[in-house]
């Protein structure tokens, strides 16, 4: 009788130790998932913060640059910066106008559909 109870205690303690390692693994997986979520949230908030900072900056004038760099450099630098910014704004407007074309909308929908079909056929999850 004593031998059976000792074996029974040994089995219970073994089962508990197995459970503890399983619970440790579950906790580690939950921590990793939590760290990934925090990393994603930090990245998204950083991107939003950068956009907010860039769009809230005052307009750049020659006077701002003259104080720091001097007259000679500022004239050329301001000319280059103003032309590059104007080109980027024009390209952004042009590309956004082109992207609203009905044929491109259909191509984008077709591409997304093919992408989803490939993901499902490979057994991957949606991003």
* Strand content range: under 5%
Assembly form of the protein: single chain
Strand segment count: 0
Biggest sheet: strands, sense, closure? none
Round the mean pLDDT to the nearest integer and report it.
80
Amino- and carboxy-terminal Cα gap: 59 Å
Shape: elongated
Class from secondary-structure proportions: mainly alpha
Give a written overview of the molecule.
It comes from Ceratitis capitata. This is (Mediterranean fruit fly) hypothetical protein. Keywords: Membrane, Transmembrane, Transmembrane helix. The chain is mainly α. It folds into two domains: about 55 residues; about 70 residues, no CATH class. Helices cover about 90% and strands about 0% of the residues. The chain has four helices and no strands. Helix 2 crosses helix 3. The longest helix is centred in the first third of the chain and has 55 residues.
